[in-house]
Write a structure and sequence with these properties.
The protein has 417 residues and is α+β, with helices and mostly antiparallel strands. Helix content is 48%, strand content 18%. The chain contains 13 helices and 12 strands.
Length: 417
C-alpha cells in the first residue's frame, strides 16, 4: 500500500477510539458520528491530493571549457568550432597550425577548398586535403557535430602512408624497367641470329652472342639483388646471433669482389680482429658490394683501400676508400635509394643494378650498425660501416671445480665457502 492509503485508515481508527471515549463520558451519539464523518472526510480529501512532481535535472549545455580538459593533451590535432569560428585548438593543433588560429574563421585558417566545402555544409563527414601544413603533406579531416553550435575537427596525418605506397609503386616500376631492358636486348639479338644464315662463327654472330651473354649476366645479377633485398627486409627485425671473426671475413670478401683481374688494385689494412654478432652471408655481401663499387667507379690506375679497425663506443669499423671522380654533396643523401644512380649510363655499362648500396644500408640496419658516406669531387669517396662488437664470451666457471689432488673434505670446504 502507498502512504496515501495508510493515512485514512489510521485516522479512522483514531476517530473511533476518540468517539468511544466520548460516549463513555456521556456525549451524544449523533454528535460523535458527526465528528467522525467530518474527520474522515478531511482525511480522504488530504490523501487524494496529487503528489508534488519530482525534481528533474536540467540538461546543462556543452561548454568549451568542459571540452578543453578532455582534448588538450591528445596527440591528435583537434579543434572545436563554434559555428564558423575556431573556439579552441588543443596543443597538437596549435603546434601544427600555430596558436594564432584560435579565434579565426575556420575557412580562412584551413584555406583548402575541400576543407572549406566540408565546413560550409555543416555536416558530419571527412575530406582529404594536400599541402595543409607544408607542401606535399596529406591530411584527412573528420568533422563531428557536437550540438547546434559546436563541432569538432580531427586531423589525421596520412603523409607516411602515402609515401610508403608511392615508394612501393616506384620500386615496382623501376624493377620492371630494369628487368625489361636486358630482356629486350637478349630477345632482339636472338631473333637476329635466328633470321641469319645459321652460321654462328661470323664476327657479327660472335658480337651478338657476347652481348646476349653480358645482358643475361646483368639480368641474373639484378634478380639476385632483388631477392637479397627482399630477404634482408623480411629479416630486418631479427637480430643476428652468430659470432663472426670479422677480420677473416673482410679479407675473404674483399678478395672475392676484386677477382683475379682487379686484385692488384686492392689494398688491405686490417689492424684489428674484432668479433661481432652477425649474419655471415649478409656481412660478406656488404664488403663485396662496397669493394665492387669502389673498383668500378674509382680511377682504374688508383688503388682501393679496405681498412678494419676499432672505433669508439665498442664498434668495429670497416672503411672502403677509392680515388675516383667523387660524388656531388647533393647526391650523397640519395645514394642508398633503390635504383638511384649518379651516372646511369656509366652504371649500366659497368653492370651495376642500382641496388648495391640499398642492400648495404638494410643489412647494416639489421645489425644495429651505422653507414656513413663522405665524398669530395675530384678526390674520391669513403664509405664507412660500423658494427657493434659482440660481448665477450663468459669464462668457464671454476668456483665448483674440484682439483684432482683435493680430498673430498677439501672439496666440500671449497664449495661451502
Amino acid at each position: 500500500m502507498g502512504s496515501g492509503q495508510n493515512i485514512p485508515i489510521a485516522g479512522i481508527l483514531l476517530a473511533l477510539v476518540t468517539i468511544g471515549a466520548m460516549l463513555s463520558l456521556g456525549v451524544d451519539l449523533v454528535i460523535g458520528l458527526s465528528v467522525l464523518t467530518v474527520w474522515v472526510g478531511s482525511l480522504l480529501v488530504a490523501s487524494g491530493r496529487p503528489p508534488e512532481p519530482a525534481k528533474t535535472d536540467v540538461k546543462q549545455p556543452v561548454t568549451i571549457d568542459s571540452i578543453r580538459d578532455l582534448i588538450e593533451n591528445s596527440t591528435t590535432p583537434l579543434m572545436i568550432t563554434e559555428r564558423s569560428t575556431i573556439a579552441m585548438a588543443n596543443r597538437a593543433a596549435r603546434r601544427m597550425l600555430g596558436p594564432h588560429v584560435v579565434g579565426q574563421d575556420a575557412r580562412v585558417a584551413l584555406r583548402q577548398p575541400e576543407a572549406i566545402s566540408l565546413l560550409n555544409e555543416k555536416r558530419k563527414g571527412e575530406v582529404i586535403v594536400r599541402g595543409l601544413v607544408r607542401r606535399g603533406d596529406i591530411w584527412q579531416i573528420n568533422r563531428q557535430q557536437i550540438d547546434e553550435r559546436l563541432a569538432m575537427l580531427e586531423f589525421i596525418n596520412q603523409t607516411a602512408e602515402a609515401d610508403i605506397s608511392r615508394a612501393h609503386t616506384d620500386f615496382v616500376a623501376n624493377a620492371s624497367h630494369e628487368l625489361r631492358t636486358p630482356l629486350a636486348a637478349i630477345l632482339g639479338y636472338v631473333e637476329t641470329l635466328q633470321e641469319g644464315d645459321g652460321k654462328l662463327d661470323t664476327p657479327t654472330a660472335q658480337k651478338f652472342l657476347g652481348i646476349i651473354e653480358r645482358e643475361a649476366q646483368r639480368l641474373h645479377a639484378l634478380v639476385s639483388d632483388l631477392m637479397s633485398l627482399s630477404r634482408v627486409e623480411a629479416e630486418k627485425h631479427d637480430l643476428p646471433t652468430e659470432r663472426i671473426d670479422l677480420a677473416s671475413l673482410v679479407e675473404r670478401a674483399a678478395r672475392d669482389a676484386a677477382g683475379p683481374n682487379r686484385i692488384d688494385r686492392l689494398t688491405l689494412e686490417l689492424s684489428a680482429e674484432p668479433c661481432v654478432l652477425g649474419d655471415l652471408q649478409q656481412l660478406e655481401q656488404v664488403v663485396r658490394n662496397l669493394v665492387d663499387n669502389a673498383l668500378k667507379y674509382g680511377s682504374a690506375d688508383k688503388p682501393v683501400t679496405v681498412t678494419l679497425d676499432l672505433s669508439q663506443a665498442d664498434q668495429a669499423r670497416i672503411a672502403v676508400v677509392d680515388q675516383g671522380d667523387g660524388i656531388a654533396p647533393e647526391q650523397i643523401p640519395h645514394l642508398t635509394r633503390r635504383f638511384y644512380r649518379t651516372d646511369p649510363g656509366r652504371s649500366r655499362a659497368s653492370g651495376g643494378t642500382g641496388l648495391g648500396l640499398a642492400i648495404v644500408k638494410h643489412i647494416v640496419e639489421r645489425h644495429r650498425g651505422r653507414l656513413d658516406i663522405t665524398s669530395e669531387v675530384g678526390k674520391g669517396t669513403r664509405v664507412v660501416v660500423r658494427i657493434p662488437l659482440a660481448e665477450p664470451e663468459p669464462d668457464p666457471e671454476t668456483d665448483d671445480h674440484v682439483t684432482p689432488d683435493a680430498s673430498p673434505a677439501e672439496a666440500n670446504t671449497e664449495q661451502l665457502s
